[in-house]
Every structure is written in structure tokens, then in C-alpha cells.
Amino acid sequence: MVRSEVVARIAVQNPHLYARDVERVVAAILDRMATALADGDRVELRDFGAFAVRDREARTGRNPRSGQSVTVTAKRSVHFKPGKAMRARLNLKLADWDGEAERLLQAS
């Protein structure tokens, strides 16, 4: 799902909100998350997961096409660790999924 699909889905679920306002809220949340990660902070969304920044040290890699050694510079990357509820939803058995989907639809 991409950002525009998230905005569209939230706008449909909340007809009293304008789509442009939903877009601003989603953009503000994602921008704040990006700023926090850039500052080295950890971002945790309960029942979804946590985003954290990890430093990757410089290393010597290999060009797969030519086989030559290449120096790969140090960099920072985002690491995602799914939460317990997310892992449980992802690992539901197919037979259990129908009941879980019904429960989730009724809750929303």
C-alpha cells in the first residue's frame, strides 16, 4: 500500500474529513517520523512495530559483474522490527484468518 492508498482509505472510513486534510495529517505524521529517525531516535507504533536507525560500517565489497573489490562507505539505514500483534496477524493460519478478519472488520 502506498501513501495515496492510505490517504484514500482513511478518507473513505471518515467521510466527515476532507481528503486534503487527511493528506496533510498523513504527511505530517510521516514527516515527523522521518525527522525523528534522522535525529537518531526510535519510532514505535504500538501493535505495529518499531523503526530504528542502525549504523553500517564501511567495508570492502565485491562488484558482482566484474569481481573487483569495491570500497563501500559507512552509512545509516532504517531497521523495522514488527510488534507482537503484527507478527500474530501475519502468522495466522488460513483457517483462522476468516474469523480474525470478521473480528477486525467489526472493530473498525
Keywords:
two-stranded antiparallel ribbon, three-stranded antiparallel beta sheet, 5 strands, 108 residues
What does this structure look like?
The chain is an alpha+beta fold. Helix content is 48%, strand content 25%. The protein has four helices and five strands, in the order H-H-E-E-E-E-E-H-H.
Using only C-alpha atoms, the radius of gyration works out to: 20 Å
The total beta strand count reads 5
In order across it, which strands form the biggest sheet? 1-2-5
- Strand pairing plus helix content: what structural class? alpha+beta
- Average pLDDT: 89
Q: Count helical runs.
A: 4
Order of helices and strands: HHEEEEEHH
Low-confidence stretches: none
Q: Fraction of residues in helices?
A: 40-55%
C-alpha geometry: extended
At a glance:
With 108 residues, this protein is of the alpha+beta class. The protein contains four helices and five strands. The protein has a three-stranded antiparallel beta sheet. It has a two-stranded antiparallel ribbon with strand order 3-4.
List the helices and strands and how they pair.
Blueprint: H1 3-13, H2 19-38, E1 43-45, E2 49-56, E3 59-62, E4 69-72, E5 75-82, H3 84-90, H4 94-107
Antiparallel strand pairs: 1-2, 2-5, 3-4
Helix pairs in contact: 1-2
